[in-house]
Amino acid sequence: MDLLREEAREIPVFYEADICVLGGSCTGVFAAVRAARLGAKVVIIEKQNAFGGVATSGLVNIWHSLHNTEFNQQIIAGLTLETIERLDRIGAVIEHQKNHSSGFLLNTEELKIELDRLVQEANVKVYLHTMFVAPYVVDGELQAAIVENKSGRGAIKAQMFIDATGDGDLCDRLGIGHRISPEFQPSTACAKIDGWEPGLQGFDLAEALLAYKEEFHIPEGFGWGAQVPNSKHVYMYAGTRVYHANSSDGEALTYSEMEGRRQVRAIMDMVRKYGQGNQMSLVSLPSYIGTRETRHIDCHYQLTGDNVLHGHRFDDAIANGSYRVDIHHQDKPGLTFRYLNGEQVYIRPGYPHEVGKWREPVEIDPTFYQIPYRSLLPQGPYKNVIVAGRMLDVDETAFGGVRVMVNMNQLGEAAGVAAYIGLSENKGFVDVDVQQLRHQLKSGGSIVL
């Protein structure tokens, strides 16, 4: 690779804050809002034109249950519940009670606006269309984030930094250790399609995808979808699969975006050709492909599949979840579900389900699992950096369960509150008193167990 040398130059300081959040998914927004509500001066940086991450820019409009697997105990609240309640007041959410696959269907366009309102009400400084470029480190201390937007290149100075970029971009560029699983879960490009459900009446999609996959160059994968609340026939469909393309690599991400869109068109062309007189219209495509997994940052504790599947409790737990382990495979089509009750199901569309057990029966099955604070604390010298989101330290099995949005939302809230405590007491994230953190989370509306 040829190298060029960029000349040193002075750049302006765009803004100075107590806490800088890089990444504006719901995870990042909730981090910023929780810290700001406690009194911190917070700035949030987002590369897209709106907040919400995969939920909005990726079109994924499902949040999972806030209850345990038996639906007899609520285990998630905080800003996730508050946001659902805000959307419900304008008819932008549908609740599916006692459903392991879908807790809430969201109108994610309305979610964009509601997230705007959340950060504005909390007086968070916002930079949209702004890309994180590099960390600014002096004498081994992270002092600022270098960013670029329409105003050019500038610096955001802060005392505490929350990496909510999804891919762990800040940690990566600080040289903090990380890994990318050789079996990282593949990406999916979603689409909103008008007339999808009426158009598929009497048409077996799974059978057609197997029969015509070679004609339309559609890889085998797994498809699902959900209606858009209060729309007549608009359906969000997630049926594409981009294998072996790492979204933390620029060229691979470019390929993924174009290949995902190609597959959307191919699936629709197939339905148009072999369906029964359907009248479909492509309404919207994502502005960012649905990336499931890239980097995992080396933290003080790696959450394991055994921890999740056996419902291990942690003294430093800052999030609870009940979504089953859901592994989208790289090496074969379909996916594997593992449940806390010991059941396992491999689903390959068009084939019979393969049902079995991942463990023998036990006297009492766990009904939820937890994520510890330590899994957000990067190893290394930078005490003012924490991760919040899918780049947390987990193994492949644990990631299959914890990666969903209602779980990641809680990591953002924990990171925001931890940043405020560290700021107030002049401590790094690793030295924050975890019981104080858990108490503060509970005081702010989170469920702490």
UniProtKB/TrEMBL annotation:
Signal peptide: none
Top-rank taxon: Bacteria
Keywords linked to the UniProt accession: 4Fe-4S, Iron, Iron-sulfur, Metal-binding, Oxidoreductase
A single MF term (Gene Ontology): oxidoreductase activity
Organism name: Paenibacillus whitsoniae
Coiled-coil region(s): none
UniProt KW 4Fe-4S keyword: yes
InterPro entries: FAD/NAD-bd_sf, HdrA-like
Upper classification of the organism: Bacteria, Bacillati, Bacillota, Bacilli, Bacillales
Record protein name field: FAD-dependent oxidoreductase
SUPFAM superfamilies on file: FAD/NAD(P)-binding domain
